[in-house]
Amino acid sequence: LVKNVCNMSVFKGRRVIDQIRGRSYEEALMILELMPYRACYQILKLVYSAAANASHNMNLKETDLFISEAKVNKNSFIKKLRPRARGRSYGIKRHSCLRPRARGRSYGIKRPTCHITIVLKEKSKFFLDK
């Protein structure tokens, strides 16, 4: 199981995630390396990390793993106010992050962010449960 917050659009992430959902680990790596999208690199790193977690923490073989669950969800917004003339203010929607920190002016560039969740399972255990 790997969760991560990435700086990419939800739609661009889903376009890649839909191609690898339900496939074996090795097949997913091959697909991600050959697809021409920029989002593939960040998702490839997540799949590598999930496989490393499974092999180190649970002593599973990487050849027996497959992607059982893969989701891309929208990140939450933070509302900020920008002071305007005559005592008025305009609202600004900013994407939140895991650790809030100072970002300078409140009318900066809005960047789309998303949550990516990838779950790897072993083939034999998955088919025995069903």
Identify the CATH homologous superfamily of the largest domain: Ribosomal protein L22/L17
* Adjacency order of strands in the biggest sheet: 1-5-2
Largest sheet: 3 strands, antiparallel
Q: Output mean pLDDT.
A: 81
CATH architecture of the largest domain: Alpha-Beta Complex
**Overall body shape:** elongated
Specify the number of helices: 4
List how many beta strands DSSP finds: 5
Question: What distance lies between the first and last C-alpha atoms, to the nearest angstrom?
Answer: 20 Å
* Relative strand content: 25-35%
Pfam family, one: Ribosomal_L22
Protein name: Large ribosomal subunit protein uL22c
Main location: plastid
Subcellular location: Plastid
Descriptive terms for the model:
two-stranded antiparallel sheet; 2 domains; three-stranded antiparallel sheet; ribosomal protein; 130 residues; 36% helix; Ribosomal Protein L22, Chain A; alpha+beta; Ribosomal_uL22; 4 helices
How would you sum up this structure in a few lines?
Helices cover 36% and strands 29% of the residues. The chain is built from four helices and five strands. One of its GO terms (biological process) is translation.
Task: Describe this protein's structure.
The protein has 130 residues and is of the alpha+beta class. The protein has two domains: 2-74 and 116-129, Ribosomal Protein L22, Chain A, CATH 3.90.470; 76-112, no CATH class. Helix content is 36%, strand content 29%. It is built from four helices and five strands; from the N terminus they run βαααββββα. It has helices at residues 10-20, 25-34, 39-57, 123-129, and strands at 2-6, 65-74, 77-83, 89-95, 114-122. Helix 2 (25-34) packs antiparallel against helix 3.
